[in-house]
Amino acid sequence: MRPWSREPAAFPNAWLFNRTTRSLTLTQEGRELHERTLRLLAEREAIEQAAVSARSEPAGILKVTAPLPIGIHLIAPALPAFRKRFPKLSIDLRLGDHFVDLVGEGVDVAIRAGVDTSDAVAAVMVAGRGVGITPYVAASYVKRGELVPLLTEFVEPRSTITALWPQSRRSSPNVKAFVAHLTKVFAAYAADK
């Protein structure tokens, strides 16, 4: 092994890894340095979160992802009231039906809906005796009397809405304010159903 590959400039007197033609492994010094670096990075994250938590008012940009129907019919209509209450906080709302890597994509809050796959609802759909539609899309039409719910005796609660956020954002005032606001929005929606 060439000396320069085992002795990086930052650590000229320590061998951090062993490399062969088939493997690359950390030395004991390399493992210790890696563990210490991970602890330091975690401490850095904790310091950043403490600084963010010290802010009394949410501010900056909050990246939110949600399924398209929930985003259009529940979240988007609730944003003006939220922005009025927290004018220093901008919302970057990303709508789509794909799962995202919260940490990898820098998302602060992910809204997800899980569909109920109960046997009764599935049997109705498979038999062709009903029409399926997302309740978030139809709710305003039903409320105005433009649509009528069908097969209500077979329908169970279809989904649970959850808000997820990375562990590193747990004390963020931005996340706390947004999740509290959505909790009220979703509770009002459930009460109107």
TrEMBL record:
Domain (LysR substrate-binding) ranges: 56-121
SUPFAM superfamilies: Periplasmic binding protein-like II
Span of the signal peptide: none
Superkingdom, taxonomy of origin: Bacteria
InterPro entries: LysR-type_TF_proteobact-type, LysR_subst-bd, WH-like_DNA-bd_sf
Cited PANTHER family: HTH-TYPE TRANSCRIPTIONAL ACTIVATOR TTDR-RELATED, HTH-TYPE TRANSCRIPTIONAL REGULATOR
Family label: Belongs to the LysR transcriptional regulatory family.
Name this protein carries in UniProt: Transcriptional regulator, LysR family
Source organism of this protein record: Burkholderia ambifaria MEX-5
